[in-house]
Task: inverse folding
């Protein structure tokens, strides 16, 4: 974090997250929606990492071990999120493939079998 | 002394084992080893149990009269801190008397049944029920507390139901079984309430706190008189309710309705359950709980009056019956009435005495009737009989003994009386009723009235029994010869066919001037009386016992070509033994008041005190017996009188009326059924349909309505859901950020917020030091920095 302030990282994360949200809501292609979800997850990852690093820097002066722990905790969360994201994509793409084979169409607005 | 009667458990266990064998292996055994083995396995346990019971009874009678009572605990049953009801037996004269009857007569009837039911396919089922009945009846009489009595009580009721409906494929039999069970429920209701009241009354007492077994007879009966004096109102209620229970089981007047219908069962069942044992359990109950009735003269008087009315009523009805088993059924009801007279007037021993002698001769009568029915192709109508003494000599002469016994024939010779079994017990009852003064209403001794009426009923008994004997065994005509040959060539008429045919019989057939033809065509005899069939509650078509599966090919219907054959040895042997008992049993038991002293020796002096010496009573009752027989011979000696034949319109009105139980049965059953049906329908309509269904359907409809309301939210557009989720997320974050005070989630200064339980030791030390300093600050403050 040489010179780049925490706020900049957070701002970038926010921007990515907002992009993802808007993408999920307005797009009808499930592939793109998946990409947007990835975008949101990575925004969160970025935020985790930023805070971890930030805390490490702040605490390092007085208590190096505690600071290291807090950084590792943040990075661990990122690993988890990535693992979950990978699993989710695997399952989700499988579902989309199946739907495509059945209907030759993956427009998300036409997937409304559960309409009340 | 106690160990002497330890073998009593075997008396119960043997029939129980017999029941289990019959129930689980009987059918298989019948296939592989034959019915003979199954029959032997059913009879042997009862006979061995009888042997053990004889041994125990002899041991008991060898004891000093005051000590003839022993409690044998088998295992704990109901076992709590304040109430203990062990499964225990009371061996005393009353219980052993009944045990001897149940196993002895029961064993003979089992033996008879092996012959009687030999054509029955479901042989093992029959004997499993019969053995189970013996078990239940033994629990009833041997149990040392009212809980066990109640268990046996319900058990015999169940077996009675199962056996009445043994040929359940015949709808009439199933109906009769239901009727018996339902009418018995009324009695059981009374018994149950009486038991609850008794428990409530006894547990109020001081003694209950210290005696957890306070419901056992040996604890309860001595403590009872004191409680009864303290609670007069409860005493009357308990006495009355116990009587309701006894009246249900023992077929007393309003509740007798089930017993005649119970004749739908196989004849050995009628002999065992509905004559010798189960129906006398009401008398056993009255004997066992006699302390209660002694404290309540009014209820005793009610018992005597109802018993007397039952005896008279049933005796008159017996004149209107043409079915041989029905005659015997009403005669049983009538004799049970005598037993209740005895208990009502306080001569409990006389009631038990009549139980014993009645078991002898009534079992014999039923078994003899069974032999006749067996010989006559299961036709039960006496109008088809006549002159059977020619074909059934053993049956005839054993039946003659039973007939003389129930007619109470005796020759008084000075002090001594020489007579058959019934004479002694009946005279003891009448004597106690006339000479006693226990049954009082407002100081009026109703016992005397019941005694004299009872004497009149003895005359009637003797007449109708003579009627039965002469219509069946004597006379000049063999009346079944009038049935055209081959009338049954079509084979068995399944009952549903009969039902249907009968239900289509309207006026023409009933107005038929020659009902004989109709009868001869193999339809139930009852069809010739139109009225009964109109009622929805028919009284069954079991005039011909129709075992739905029993008829094999060799069994043909009754017609002119039929030649009755004497029954097999397994059937006539019990008849002969019972005949011996009917002949000499009364004399042996009555000699020197042996039975009275055996049953009630000295323990409870009140009991023995009812005087039963009436001058010339034995002359009167001998006159009644002989007079009845002579009258009977005058009326029926030449065979079936013309005014009692097939054409019931020629019957005298009173006899027609008697045949229909003076309308009491149809009134009671139809009215209760219809009234109960209307009530049930009303309740169903308002409570069930209106209320309960309303709640159930209403809650369902409510859920559906709410669902309709909310399902509009499910548009099926995934992007809309995502938008809603976004709104929710934004709303949640907004709430967290702007609510005041903010919720617990907030950013902590670095180095503190992330330190939890797993924090490194230094951090904990730092915090601990801070805490310690903070904690010590107040105490350190005085001598602190300031």
Result:
């Amino acid at each position: 974090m040489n010179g780049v302030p925490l706020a900049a990282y957070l701002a970038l994360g926010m921007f990515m997250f907002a992009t993802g949200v808007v993408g999920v809501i307005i797009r009808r292609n499930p592939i793109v929606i998946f990409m947007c979800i990835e975008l949101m997850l990575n925004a969160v990852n970025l935020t985790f990492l930023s805070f971890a690093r930030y805390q490490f820097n702040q605490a390092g002066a007085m208590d190096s071990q505690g600071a290291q722990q807090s950084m590792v905790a943040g990075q661990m969360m990122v690993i988890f999120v990535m693992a979950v994201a990978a699993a989710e994509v695997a399952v989700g793409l499988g579902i989309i493939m199946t739907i495509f084979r059945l209907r030759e169409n993956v427009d998300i607005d036409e997937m409304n079998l559960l309409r009340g | 002394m106690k160990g002497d009667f330890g073998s009593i458990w075997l008396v119960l266990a043997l029939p129980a084992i017999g029941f289990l064998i019959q129930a689980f292996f009987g059918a298989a055994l019948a296939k592989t080893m034959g019915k003979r083995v199954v029959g032997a396995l059913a009879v042997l346990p009862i006979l061995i149990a009888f042997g053990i019971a004889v041994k125990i009874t002899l041991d008991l009678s060898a004891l000093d009269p005051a000590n003839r009572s022993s409690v044998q605990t088998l295992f704990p049953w109901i076992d709590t801190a304040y109430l203990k009801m062990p499964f225990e037996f009371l061996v005393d004269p009353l219980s052993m008397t009944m045990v001897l009857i149940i196993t002895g007569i029961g064993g003979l009837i089992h033996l008879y049944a092996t012959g009687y039911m030999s054509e029955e396919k479901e042989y093992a089922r029959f004997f499993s029920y019969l053995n189970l009945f013996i078990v239940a009846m033994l629990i009833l009489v041997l149990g040392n507390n009212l809980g066990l009595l109640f268990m046996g009580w319900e058990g015999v009721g169940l077996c009675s139901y199962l056996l009445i409906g043994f040929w359940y494929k015949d709808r009439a039999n199933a109906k009769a079984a239901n009727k018996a069970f339902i009418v018995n429920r009324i009695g059981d209701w009374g018994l149950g309430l009486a038991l609850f009241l008794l428990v409530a009354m006894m547990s109020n007492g001081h003694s209950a706190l210290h005696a957890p077994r306070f419901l056992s007879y040996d604890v309860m009966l001595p403590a009872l008189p004191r409680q009864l004096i303290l609670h007069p109102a409860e005493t009357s209620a308990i006495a009355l309710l116990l009587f309701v229970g006894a009246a249900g089981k023992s077929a007393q007047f309003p509740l007798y309705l089930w017993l005649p219908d119970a004749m739908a069962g196989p004849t050995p069942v009628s002999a065992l359950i509905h004559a010798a044992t189960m129906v006398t359990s009401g008398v056993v109950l009255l004997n066992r709980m006699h302390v209660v009735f002694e404290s309540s003269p009014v209820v005793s008087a009610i018992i005597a009056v109802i018993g007397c009315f039952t005896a008279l009523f049933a005796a008159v009805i017996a004149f209107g019956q043409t079915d041989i088993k029905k005659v015997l059924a009403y005669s049983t009801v009538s004799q049970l009435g005598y037993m209740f007279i005895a208990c009502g007037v306080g001569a409990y021993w006389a009631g038990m005495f009549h139980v014993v002698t009645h078991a002898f001769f009534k079992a014999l009568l039923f078994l003899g009737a069974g032999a006749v029915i067996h010989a006559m192709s299961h036709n039960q109508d006496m109008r088809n009989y006549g002159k059977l003494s020619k074909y059934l000599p053993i049956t005839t002469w054993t039946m003659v003994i039973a007939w003389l016994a129930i007619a109470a024939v005796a020759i008084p010779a000075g002090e001594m009386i020489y007579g058959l079994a019934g004479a002694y017990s009946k005279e003891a009852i009448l004597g106690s009723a006339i000479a006693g003064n226990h049954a009082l209403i407002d100081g009026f001794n109703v016992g005397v009235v019941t005694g004299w009426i009872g004497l009149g009923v003895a005359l009637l008994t003797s007449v109708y029994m003579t009627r039965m004997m002469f219509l069946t065994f004597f006379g000049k005509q063999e009346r079944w010869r009038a049935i055209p040959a081959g009338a049954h060539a079509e084979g068995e008429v399944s009952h549903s066919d009969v039902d249907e045919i009968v239900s289509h019989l309207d006026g023409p057939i009933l107005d038929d001037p020659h009902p004989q033809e109709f009868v001869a065509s193999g339809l139930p005899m009852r069809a010739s009386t139109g009225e009964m069939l109109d009622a929805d509650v028919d009284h069954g078509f079991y005039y011909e016992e129709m075992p739905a599966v029993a008829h094999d090919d060799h069994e043909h219907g009754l017609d002119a070509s039929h030649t009755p054959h004497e029954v097999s040895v397994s059937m006539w042997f019990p008849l002969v033994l019972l005949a011996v008992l009917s002949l000499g049993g009364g004399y042996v038991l009555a000699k020197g008041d042996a039975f009275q002293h055996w049953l009630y020796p000295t323990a409870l002096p009140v009991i023995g005190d009812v005087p039963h010496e009436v001058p010339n009573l034995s002359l009167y009752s001998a006159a009644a017996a002989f007079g009845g027989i002579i009258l009977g011979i005058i009326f029926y000696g030449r065979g079936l009188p013309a005014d009692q034949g097939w054409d019931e319109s020629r019957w005298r009105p009173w006899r027609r009326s008697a045949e229909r139980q003076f309308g009491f049965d149809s009134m009671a059953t139809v009215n209760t059924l219809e009234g109960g049906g209307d009530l049930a329908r009303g309740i169903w309509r308002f409570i069930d349909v209106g209320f309960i269904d309303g709640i159930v359907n209403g809650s369902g409809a409510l859920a559906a309505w709410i669902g309709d309301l909310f399902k509009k939210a499910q548009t099926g557009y995934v992007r809309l859901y995502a938008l809603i989720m976004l709104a929710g997320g934004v709303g949640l974050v907004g709430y967290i950020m702007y609510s005041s005070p903010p919720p617990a989630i907030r950013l902590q200064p670095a180095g503190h917020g992330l330190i939890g339980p797993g924090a490194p030791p230094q951090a904990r030390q730092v915090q601990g030091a801070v805490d310690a300093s903070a904690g010590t600050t107040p105490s350190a403050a005085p001598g602190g920095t300031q």
Q: What stands out?
A: Chain A touches chain B at residues 21, 24-26, 28, 54-55, 58-59, 62-63, 65-67, 69-70, 73, 108-109, 111-116 (CB under 8 Å).
